[in-house]
Amino acid sequence: MRKWIRLICSCGGTVIAVNHKAKKMLKHKEDYPLIDRINYLKKNCQKVCDGGFRVRFVVSGEENIPQGQKLYIGNHTSLIDPVLFLAVSKDPVTFVAKKEIEKYPFVGKIVTSIDPAYLDRGNLRKEIKTYKMIDQQLDDNPELSYLIYPEGTRTKAPDFPLLDFHPGAFKIATKRGMPIVPVAMFLTNRILHQKFHFKVYPIQVKYLTPIYEEEYSKMTASELSEKCRSLLKEATDELRAKEPSLIQSFNNYSDKKMAKVMNIYSKEAKK
């Protein structure tokens, strides 16, 4: 409970202000181009991460990011994964989201302000319409990139194993010949978790080697999906192994304090 109180006190004002601005931008879209709306939200995501979330990003592989439009694909362990990605990414990015998010209090308007692709997987006609909308967005905004979580839902198990990927998640890239950039993030779940109270949350972000059209055009959708999953699994396993040492160094924990932290990890893993 004390973590939620701290987060509400430290982030509540920003969320209310951004929600108010989001409503204004949605009402007058002609005055607020999409890229400007994304950059506004990125700035506030960075503010929340630096402040209330106590995040310090540990980024690697930025040299792998190609110029131009691209599809980022990531592992998904927390509700705030898109917030963290918007904060750390240097690209203007929007993302594919579950339609239910549109109705969330406060968050719904904020997310909607950057024109995400709300996907209704149970309705083929609406899904086709959504992908047409994405195509139009990308045509109209040459600097825009997309983010999608191919698992389709969050991984909730304590050790965050990757779920199966949806092969259809890669359509955005394959239809347009865009590069696919796998990006692994780790420790994101700990930020909101009530059992973990770190002074600093070192969030690891690793950009992997892109998969270009020349390579994936020779694959089936299932083969591409499995390749991406395999790459992300290897990367998340690597980041998981580094997590304890990063927590200890960023928080200046003694070995005794770190042993207590690892004991909490062990208890959570048994649930």
What secondary-structure arrangement, pairings included, does this model have?
Blueprint: H1 2-27, H2 34-50, E1 55-60, E2 71-74, H3 81-88, E3 93-98, H4 107-112, E4 117-119, H5 124-140, E5 145-148, H6 171-174, E6 180-186, E7 201-207, H7 213-216, H8 221-251, H9 255-269
Describe the structure.
The protein is an alpha/beta fold and 271 residues long. It has one domain (2-269): 3-Layer(aba) Sandwich (Glycerol-3-phosphate (1)-acyltransferase), CATH 3.40.1130. 47% of the residues lie in helices and 14% in strands. It is built from 9 helices and 7 strands. A 7-stranded mixed β-sheet has the order 1-7-6-2-5-3-4. Helix 1 runs antiparallel to helix 2 and helix 2 (34-50) crosses helix 3 (81-88). The two termini are 20 Å apart.
Task: Note the main attributes of this structure.
271 residues; alpha/beta; Glycerol-3-phosphate (1)-acyltransferase; 7-stranded mixed sheet; 9 helices
